[in-house]
TrEMBL record, chains A, B:
Protein name per UniProt: Transcriptional regulator, GntR family with aminotransferase domain
Lineage of the species this protein comes from: Bacteria, Pseudomonadati, Bacteroidota, Flavobacteriia, Flavobacteriales
Family affiliation: In the C-terminal section; belongs to the class-I pyridoxal-phosphate-dependent aminotransferase family.
GO-annotated molecular function: DNA binding; DNA-binding transcription factor activity; pyridoxal phosphate binding; transaminase activity
Organism: Tenacibaculum jejuense
Keywords for this protein: Aminotransferase, DNA-binding, Pyridoxal phosphate, Transcription, Transcription regulation, Transferase
InterPro entries named in the record: Aminotransferase_I/II_large, HTH_trans_reg/aminotransferase, PyrdxlP-dep_Trfase, PyrdxlP-dep_Trfase_major, Tscrpt_reg_HTH_GntR, WH-like_DNA-bd_sf, WH_DNA-bd_sf
UniProt-listed Pfam families: Aminotran_1_2 (PF00155), GntR (PF00392)
Amino acid sequence: MFPYKTSLHINRRSKEPLFLQLTNQFIHLIKEGTIPSGTKLIGTRSLAELLQVHRKTIVACYEELVMQGWLEAIPKKGTFVPKDLPFLKSEDYRGNEISNHTDQIGFSYYKSNLHHRTIEKKDDWMYINDGVSDGRLTPTEDLAKIYRRISSRKNITKHLGYISTQGNDQLRNVLANYLNETRGLSITKEHILITRGSQMGIWLSAQLLLKEEDIIVVGETNYASADITFLHQKAKVLRVPVDENGIDTVALENICESQQIKGVYVTSHHHHPTTVTLSAERRICLLNLAKKYSFAIIEDDYDYDFNYNHAPILPLASHDVHNNVIYIGSVCKTVAPVFRVGYLIANKEFVNEASQIRGLVDRQGDALLELTFAEFIESGDLDRHIRKVHKVYEKRRDLFCDLLREELNEYFSFKKPKGGMAVWLTLNKKYTWLEVTRAARKYKLEIGNFSRYDMAKTNHNAIRMGFARFNVAELHELIKRMKLTMIDLANLEKFA
Amino acid sequence: MFPYKTSLHINRRSKEPLFLQLTNQFIHLIKEGTIPSGTKLIGTRSLAELLQVHRKTIVACYEELVMQGWLEAIPKKGTFVPKDLPFLKSEDYRGNEISNHTDQIGFSYYKSNLHHRTIEKKDDWMYINDGVSDGRLTPTEDLAKIYRRISSRKNITKHLGYISTQGNDQLRNVLANYLNETRGLSITKEHILITRGSQMGIWLSAQLLLKEEDIIVVGETNYASADITFLHQKAKVLRVPVDENGIDTVALENICESQQIKGVYVTSHHHHPTTVTLSAERRICLLNLAKKYSFAIIEDDYDYDFNYNHAPILPLASHDVHNNVIYIGSVCKTVAPVFRVGYLIANKEFVNEASQIRGLVDRQGDALLELTFAEFIESGDLDRHIRKVHKVYEKRRDLFCDLLREELNEYFSFKKPKGGMAVWLTLNKKYTWLEVTRAARKYKLEIGNFSRYDMAKTNHNAIRMGFARFNVAELHELIKRMKLTMIDLANLEKFA
């Protein structure tokens, strides 16, 4: 007889009903062939006695197995494992515990060259970022209150099902008004696709604009995630120089004269990573070139809200009379990355196409969160939040730049940025960021992946250093750790 | 002199400061060339008088324009539009209002063949769906309460920034335990990628498995969104028959013998759309074939929680000893589509690759929502919710099937489904769904896109009709409208 008693295990403390525990164990035994097909099972009464359970449990188990097709009950003969039931071929499995199975995959698939990694953060370490907002200033509770209020509404039911891939209508209307007012656009909700954030906007644009070997132009220094997105799409990424006025439009025109480009990716309002603003002249040139050579401008306006020396500069999209601009933004920098609400703005037909692709990847947005932001924007709360953090970040910029100049002048050079949350910091050529990164760890300072700032490998020896996340005390501490690091390196060099 | 007074407009009720209103209007005028480059601007005092504003406003405006590069101030000479400033070429723009610009796009892009459309719902209409939960039973308020509680925690700050593309660790741990307990898996968090829902899981699997001309096998009838995802990936979609035991594994083996397939997509627990369960024998066959021919099984277990006649059937993934299964699920059916939380489960390396691609498309998940679901699952609330709706839906299934048989037997045939939220309803061949769809509108009944159930064009004349969203009164009403529709059609036929 099959050793039922040693093969079947009962856990009376499990939430799973006994009959189901036995059912699933039987299935495993039958699947593996441990109880071979054709086997006649022991009677329910006997098994119940063996296992010391109520007979009803065994009856329920057998019934379940019959229902699921693992057993067949033949009247007057008994209960059998069906004759033709194959068993699961698993030479390395039989007799072992499931948890022993290796993690070797059983099929082939395509690997990307992507190696993004998120660092696990330790409490007393400091982490350099490329310009992220301070979570302590995020109005998380206010937003959660709105979220809850919305969720309690009677009519919320209609927002709970499958909805448009373009996003919640109310947010699209509110956003159209808000962007028209603040950024000089002249759009309606039809021009808006609500995304999960800027990255989705960049990715969708790449999907629609670029196939293998299509050309996209970016700055010689550029936002690494955009580069990576275009390269993943197998596009040809051509680079033009970036100076204190932003990307070089003369170099761009030279490219356009000899080949058809599909698009230009630009962070006009504070070039990423160098933080410069695209000049008025170049703005006009870029729009004229887009018209003349029929290419798209992907304008990623991640930094619009943070301009300390003067009023916000209207985006290229505000004067996009020929529909060349795909305008991308999000609340990730303004509020916090955790709130996955962004937008892609373009002509209606393009927006519709983008929303089709979005539907394939991510069926729809989060209507509750979108409604939350519709209220947050419409009530003026977003504006109030921006005004509040604007002042804080401006002071932090000033302090950070002062401290850099006072304490670290011999090691780094930089220009005080007019806006944004980061400084473009060039390291004295005597040193490398690899050395600095390694040496900094002694002082619990993590620089992170510095190579992302030099995708074109020009050895500019600069990185983007975010200051917005650090308060006054932390900025002092950061500078202290940096200074200790640099002194170590200078000493090493001296005695080398 | 340039007609400043008629060209510049001041809106004292706008939230935008006066100086900024003027700044932005000047920028437009300069960009267009309406104020040509080289022009000397009127003095601040004179302009202030002309526009009846304080002189400080004009000074601020000019300063802003100088700062942004639209004007240059030459000491002792005055303020000029820079000589070399190009103007924006916009023949159809000049002199018109911005809102007049056409919506014709200024660049070329690739169009997909996707035509997903969300119907705008009217209040007194009834809409047939393919099996969606009833939003009135969704614990939206409970979830929102948890969301708010989480958002008020002191340590929430660390969840607000950029986090892992694989999803929140706490949810991954909770989910690993939950799925091990409920579905007989034996996984840890490393095997889990948190997605936005099943669609993202299907799409990511397609990205990793399929390039142009790679073969994926699906049922002759299949979930249309999966088909569309594979076709969009340019894969070759081969079909095998589906009978009352699910997909035909003999036909699958025949394909495997002659060509290398990359994967099989299967909704083992209630085939979509026909609602049948993959039989025990075929489950084993499918796993054995996957091992023998080294292909992936994409197991989309959308319907796991809804099995009325017997205990839940463990997924293929519960016996995936050779790592052939990519297991996909979400809370969309169980809780509501608005909650964008799903998962993809596979070997670690595959999950890591999938999370890289996910990062390109959608930088990260929503940590607050993910934490909310971690608590909802861990506290047992999810299980309690499932038990509650399970009973309701079972009753609705019984009622719907009884009514169909009593009232509409001559028009439709069906088998009562063992689980799920929909019935596979075959229309008498005398009629077509196109006729029914058109005729039903008279009774404010919208059938929707019936062609999605027959992607292979086999003319099975059946659609999937969801019952779970309708309560008792609504089910009676639905049957009434269907009957009126069918009577109309029968009469038409009689007198034709």
